[in-house]
User: What shape does this take?
Amino acid sequence: MDKAADVNAVNDSAWQDGTLGQLPDAKERLGERARSGQPMENFALANGDYSHVNLVNRASKTGYQLHNADCYHSDFNHAHCFKLD
Assistant: This one.
């Protein structure tokens, strides 16, 4: 299975209920999900470590879609979030 198909196989509910946000590789998974082009709505990212994550959509003039996300007490230190919608 290719990487894009693997990312899309993860159900949004796993992000929305906070299951994936607490995993050690959550930062990498979030970056992969963003690059898949699928919107990221209502993701529970609270208390996660997303430092240095790259969420810049270089292939487009518009940013990735991260709507209504719970980022309470999350670490986005040195993260790249230019034009994040």
Summary: Confidence is low (pLDDT under 50) at residues 1-9. The first strand starts at residue 40 and ends at 41. Residues 6 and 54 are 19 Å apart (CA to CA). The two ends are 29 Å apart (CA to CA).
